[in-house]
Amino acid sequence: MDNVFNKISLSLIGLALVFYLISNQFTALIPGFIGGFIQLMLMLGRQFPSMHKHFAHLNLFFFGMGCGATYKSIPLLFGYLLSGNDLDRPLATLEQFLTFVLCLIAILLGVQSFINARKK
Predict the structure, then answer these.
(1) Full-prediction pTM beyond 0.70?
(2) Do residues 16 and 30 lie in contact, with contact meaning Cβ atoms separated by under 8 Å?
């Protein structure tokens, strides 16, 4: 599971950097902070193996917070795609949607991993 969390957190950091370079807005770095926090928890999980499960749960909590903070981009983006509604901040909406998708994938894979671990 650490491998998946690592890849998704690095994707969030990369996403933040790309959108920051495009928009030059500080708020574009927010997904990078989520990714950086996940990286910190992964590092602590390797440092303290007995606490690894707790750090994994904390990672899922922060991925959930990422989904909760960005879910409003879904109707905005689909409204734009399906009916041509204007977007007030198109880059921000796109970045929020991509952050939502990455966080949701992490949650789904993490929960699946936890379920599989309980079956063993």
Answers:
(1) yes
(2) yes
